[in-house]
Amino acid sequence: MNATQLLSIAALTTLAAFSAHAEGGDTSQHGYDFKSTRTVAEVKAEALNPVRISNGSTGVITMPQSGVDKAAVRAEAASALRAGKISSGEIGLM
After folding, report:
1. pTM for this prediction
2. Does residue 12 sit in helix, strand or coil?
């Protein structure tokens, strides 16, 4: 037997060993029987009200509300640009 035949036999043996351990996606044999105690409407209503973040809990971070309107911010940015306090365009290190 030459090396090619030995390698092909080894590859087929390895493939057969791995396929013997493969398990299908059928879970009916495991006996999973899940019954929900809540209605769909209850779950959807809960999903619309996100959990608020408190000390140590997780949830949704809401954006802080600012007292400044968009026009005032734009005017301030335009004046800072004219004064040379901020850069304009694509400036980067080369």
Report:
1. 0.30
2. helix
